[in-house]
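Below is the data:
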Amino acid sequence: MRKEKCALDRGAIEALILNNTYGTLALSQEGKPYSIPMNYGYRDGCFYFHGAQEGMRYEYVQANPNAGFCIVDHETLRPELFSTDYASVIAHGKIELVEKEDEKKEWLDGFVGTLRAKTTRGRKYVYRPGSIEYSRL
């Protein structure tokens, strides 16, 4: 890190992750970058994402499962300093496809839990086996 004094402590990192609902997933295939905004869930030190097992994102992950994920929070423009204040978390890792149905349900519960604060009260989420595909970083 360029500025150690700017580093967040573990508690601030966890709070930033839990208080936000999306970030940018960065992938690469044959030297071509691909970055896409994604909702996420977070539990036990892992980010998890859902999506179809087709399309550009899936193709990139199949070709190269190494990924980066960035969440940005607290943006404040400081025009007098030609600068911006913000807090961010950047993660790197390998994306793994979640295959087992019971594990998919577990991740779905975590994903919904992460987004619950942003959902309409009174709505119920029902897990349908075979309907959800997950990957984790």
